[in-house]
Amino acid sequence: METGVALMDDFARWIEWIGVSILVISLVLSVVRAIAAFLRKATPSEIYINTRSFLGRGILLGLEVLIAADLIRTVAVAPTLDNAITLGIIVLIRTFLSFSLDVEITGSLPWREGSKKATSPPAGKESGPGDGA
Fold this sequence. Notes:
Shape: elongated
């Protein structure tokens, strides 16, 4: 059974690396997109809004992946009460961060779907990580 625990710990570690990679790639792509927008003579406010939105989506995705790694590690590797409490605190903090970032990106609360559509950029103007851009 010890081999299974070690395998799950390694699996959780790989998922953490994926989460960190998403964060780094999002940062690099955000800078590249900002430079490209600058060279296209976009306005500074457009560059700022689009870069911030793209990077924010990358951070959100990275946080979700890191939460998944924490869940795997706590449930499959070391399912103790202390680890479960620690996981709960980590999930609460990351969920609060995700919620805050989502509100910052969209400009509205998640349950106010109508106002999200009103503040969304026009189609083709912006894409997030994983959108093929």
